[in-house]
Amino acid sequence: MQEINGFVSFLGAKDVFPYLNKSLVKMSHRAWKGYSIEYNNNVMVDSMKEFKKKNISSKSIIGYCLSNSNSGELSPIHGAIYDEKLSIIVSKIKSKSEPEVLAEILRKVDGDYAFAFLKENTLIFGRDPLGVKPLFMGGNDRLFGVASEAKALECIGLASQSVQPGYIYRSDLRNLNRFLIKDLPKNNYLDVSLGESSKHILNLIETSVKNRLNKKKIALGFSGGIDSSLLALIASRLTNIELISVYVEGSRDEVETKVSANSLNLNLREVRIKADEIKDLLNRISNVIERKSNMDLAIGLAINIMASITNTEDCEGLVLGQLADELFGGYSKYIRAYNEYDVTAVQELMRTDVLNAYSANLERDEMAASPYSNLILPYASYDLANYALSLHPNLKINPKSNERKIVLRAAALEAGLPKEIVYKPKRALQYSSNLQKIISKVRKTL
Predict the structure, then answer these.
(1) Within the chain, what is the greatest distance between any pair of CA atoms?
(2) Are 302 and 244 in contact (CB under 8 A)?
(3) Which residues, 6 or more positions from 59, have their beta carbon under 8 angstroms from its beta carbon?
(4) Which of 138, 217, 278, 288 has a CB 3.0–4.6 Å from the CB of 158, allowing a cystine?
């Protein structure tokens, strides 16, 4: 099956191909194996060149960025469905099913996905409940479009906004309606012990990793802390993995990642970045991730480099530990909220952070990897997120001892992760790698 690495789609009052052409140029880094174009609802051509040659005009169109050159039908899904219902969902999209029908099926599956299809004079599109795969929309009274990147819409003059995760939308040039797939409800606290909850957390993480790693070989972004180390331990029992660490020479990560990799008895691919190399890398990554802050540039640059190695090492995806901090109380702000307010405020803050992670972090991270590799985020599983958010904050943080990720550390011990890794103090990648510090210095000189 031909797989895709993003798409752009337009519905207009007149011929929309010129818009598609310009937008796909902005996303050319996603088209590893070229393009496929669908127009007039069901007619396909295999390339931009063929479309231009035929001098086709259409008021509705989708351009797909291809990520492989396999034969067979094209999958209209950017991402993956980790379920036997994949073929059913693909067929429902290809047969132009109603949004309500498709939402009912997607409600029962685990997946990281975005999609769009044309049905008569409407555009139907949607996104997974946690927003792992990016999707943006924008329009006016003459044109409406969706795209995997905001700049693909903004380059033709459309103001863009993120598509709300967990919904399917139906749009024409006059109306925009949406249909719920599923969201993260406000659950009451579960009455469970630390032992019971940690075992269930471990089971959910192991299931998520297993579902996402049906691969011959994968790469894993490795910082040496509990989040990435637990994933590395679980993944190494399922498939071949390549650990990758990116840091500035002289940083904490230069030492700590090797120590943790040795404890796990796993090979580590190290990328040491010199300060004088940063300047040349900044423009490239800023354009790709559509962000400008020092923090976003530091994280985006690290992921982009990891993804490029994933590609050259012939790995089939890059695994990262994103969303563990939001789910299990990894940020110091949760301790502060507990001390300054109460436990309810902490719970609501964690839930808000999980719900907003798509726009705060996940869109940036997927874009950073998009020129080279597919991103795999095992912690961004709906079932895991739903359960983790139902746990009492006391199972995650202790404001008196300043402990964080309590239940995740218990799950890691249950999995067999060495204690020296489980309890190792760890700062966020942008700090422990010294990337944000160096980027800040370099940008002041520009």
Answers:
(1) 70
(2) no
(3) 11, 12, 13, 14, 15, 16
(4) 138
> Do 245 and 375 fall within a single domain?
yes
3-state secondary structure of 181: coil
- Beta strands per DSSP E along 207-264: 217-221, 240-248
Instruction: Render 280-293 in DSSP notation, one character per residue.
Output: HHHHHHHHHHT--S
| CATH number, position 107 | 3.60.20.10
Name the strands in the sheet holding 122-127, side by side, starting at the edge strand that comes first in the sequence. 77-81, 111-119, 122-127, 167-171, 176-180
Tally of domains within the chain: 2
Residue partners of 258: CB distance under 8 A and separation at least 6: 224, 268, 270
**Vertex 159, ends 358 and 354: CA angle to 5°?**
10
Residues 316/317/319/322 CA torsion (nearest 10 deg): -170
pLDDT band at 46 (very low <50, low <70, confident <90, very high): low
Distance CA 161, CA 137 (A): 6
Position 55 scores a pLDDT of: 64
Written as one letter, the residue type at 239 is: T
What is the phi/psi pair of residue 292, to 5°? -125, -10
CB 301 within 8 A of CB 289: no
pTM above 0.90, yes or no: yes
Helical ranges in 131-218 per DSSP H: 151-154, 194-212
Predicted local distance difference test score (pLDDT) of residue 69: 75
Residues 223, 129, single domain; the answer is no
Q: Which two tokens stand for residue 23?
A: 């937008």
Residue 52: the pLDDT is 65
